[in-house]
Design brief:
9% of the residues lie in helices and 41% in strands. The protein has 322 residues and is mainly β. The strands form four sheets. It has an eight-stranded antiparallel beta sheet with strand order 8-9-10-11-21-17-16-14, covered by helices on one side. Strands 5-13-19-18-15 form a five-stranded antiparallel beta sheet, with no helix packed on it. Strands 1-2-3-4 form a four-stranded antiparallel beta sheet, with no helix packed on it. The longest helix has 17 residues. The two termini are 23 Å apart. InterPro entries: DUF6807. This is Methane oxygenase PmoA.
Length: 322
Amino acid sequence: MRFKSIFLSHLFLMTFSTVSFSQKVELKETSKGIDFLIDNQRVLTYQTAMTEVPEGVKAEFKKSGFIHPITSPSGQVLSRIQPPDHYHHYGIWGPWTRATISGREVDFWNLGDGKGRVDFSHVLSKKVAGGAAELNVRQNHLDLKAPENERLAMEEDLRIKVKPADQGRYMVDYTTTISTKIPGGILLDDYRYGGGIGFRATELWGDANSTILTSEGKDRKDADGSNAKWIIVKGKTSDKSGQSGILFLSHNTNKSHPEPLRVWPLGQYKGEGNVFIEFCPIRHDSWEIQPNQRYTLKYRMIVFDGDLTAEEAEAYWRAFVK
């Protein structure tokens, strides 16, 4: 059985590396952000504009610099922003939570506290080549209540690359590199939320119509706090197959790999729209960010309609880290 699994993985790698894709990939800039298109269909948007909040919600919850929407190949919207239970959730994003700067706690995640925020700053580069579209942006992690007034705590260079994949799927590379110029550096304190890559799923998914599966065989009952190389999140959609989803892959060079997970367990929040997962490298161990050094985390997403098996997920991960 093990030989068969290894054989299938090698076969997948050879097939995956030699497949030729003729789909047209484009970038389109709008007043709200930068769209990635495959064959004239928008598959995801990186939001550059500050997103306003619903009437009656604190202005501190406004934010830019995140991915939403991300859609399945058939156009099913899989992400969600500003859900009423967590207005600070923004599609696919990765702010740090408990950061210690010069002895003070700064929170870039819980926007309502007004302590910190991560904003889009500017585009570093854009290109379409080799059947892929790539965007590189600068994001600013702001310390909003620093004694000397608001200041830049960390710079983040975020690279998003989109390319068609096999079986009508597509892949998204999400590479984040952080650095600080603050003397003494920054301590990213261990906590169950923060950094890495987080995903708040569509409001249509709940306990009864969605599932997750990790590389270690865990699901929503026991995945929270565990470590994983990959995690599949899928649920009911209007695609003709009846479901869609995203496979999230963590690179083996990432801090704390296999990476700790934050997964909302079954029953964490009642009703629909209660699906949240995150690769959280600081879940169990703090991370010291030294001044003028660069630290990189690499992730890949495979976005699909229908099903994606554990064997396929493992093969995708092997291709990613090859």
